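PROTEIN DATA CARD
Card holder: L-seryl-tRNA(Sec) selenium transferase
Chain length: 559
Origin: Blautia acetigignens
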Amino acid sequence: MGDRDQASEVPEGQKSREVPEGFRKNRNELLRKIPKIDRLMEMESVKAQCELYGYQIVLEAARKAQEQLREVLRTGSCIGSEESCLETGRQESPADVPKRNADESECLYDEKNKEQNIQSSSTFEQYLLVKMQEILSRQDQRRMQRVINATGVILHTNLGRAPLGEKLVFELVPLMTGYTNLEMNLEDGKRGSRYDHFSENLCRLTGAEACLAVNNNAAAVLVMLTALASGGETIVSRGELVEIGGKFRIPDVCCQSGTTLVEVGTTNRTYLEDYQNAVTENTAAFLKVHTSNYQITGFTHEPAVEELAKAAHSHGIPFLVDLGSGCLADMVAYGLQSERRVQELLAKGADLVAFSGDKLLGGPQAGILAGRRDLIEKISKHPLMRALRIDKFTAAALDRTVSLYLKADIRKEIPVYEMMSRSAAQLETMVQELVTEIASFSGEHISETNSWLNSWEKPLPGQPQKRGFNQDANSRFLFEIVPTTNVTGGGTTPGKTLPGFALGIKPRDSSICAEEISHRLRTLSTPVIGHIQDDCVYLEMRTLLPGDLEILKKELKDL
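Structure generated from the sequence above:
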């Protein structure tokens, strides 16, 4: 098969282009000039990459880069975006394609002079080094790393839910880097319990007789029902069979425990007699699931917690509650509607309450069970507890988090509540500070009289007023200050919002879109995660942690 035929064999999905005659004649010579892998790996810059990423990872990147270059030389055209994405594992932005194609084409062939620009191995080396760094950087982005949450969702599941406070983490460092008394009683030198470190204070806060923790709330519900209701029936309202995210559903989790769920009532209305009429000799428990991630409003009814507890106890069975959100604080104090709290449910007769550690509690991921001592002891002896038990980090972080509720202002020490407590005026000040910085590095001057334009984009009736500021007409972006609304997230306080302020970044013209702006923000040295609405990227101020605003000022320069 001749060179002309080989050059025409372009993989499916790639666009072919005319291959210059001079290029075809010299293809084999150019292929021979590709540096060997051994030579690349001996270069000082590559050795530095090995120190940073690891030898094997850099070696694989070199091989991928070399293969990409061979493909370019074989076809006389650039690697298509789809194949490039398969090689690097990254979803390529639409705006990346023309730029990358143009750069690689220019490197391969100078149409103006009708001759190859690649004349030596040194040029190939530079090409490969650039490609290797691109591959390594994209792979590095897939590692867990620090990001800036500018979504306005405080408990963002995809971003790790509740962040821990700096002071708390500082206290955890010596515990994580050394040995601890995780399961040792220092008074008598005998084996202790990993739950003792936080259980006393948590019982003091909630009024529970005892408590323990497993690795998340779904696990807490699973082990609770397995230990207390396996082989029996568990009665639950049909309107409480929630999906908790990731397509995991309460009925599926419960059925794994070996209990049989007995659904009563209807989606919107369930009465006490529905539970009572469903009781049989096989009934093992009443279960109430707090619908913390959605609301049913209008023509609704549900029996009071006290009524359910009394009815369950009259039949000699426990009343179990899956609270989910794990609220201990009064949400009204933070501008939200009242949320059911652990201590209130226990006081009203619940025998056990299951809840999360990394939601409204503001601590690490954990599933906590609090309530009657005899039930906790029975659960603690179940074999599943060994499989679901928490590690020393979680035990220590829970201990420190729970202690904060007793000895400190949680608004100052627990980031979740610090973010909730920010006023709209504080958020507006933050975004004004940010746009002032943007104006300074873009060379624009902001004055009291003409910097803020109240009508650069006239809002529709009912929409919030946006404020833009004068910018260089050559800028690809329009910036604006926008009043918004924020949510706690994480399947908590559904339908309840907090007033917010955001920096809006909008394309000036069709040369760039909001998706591309969002992509650029995510690929900054410190990734910035915002949200898109109406072809505008919004960076919310409420969810910025201490220091994030300063980082954001610097990162936006590279946008």
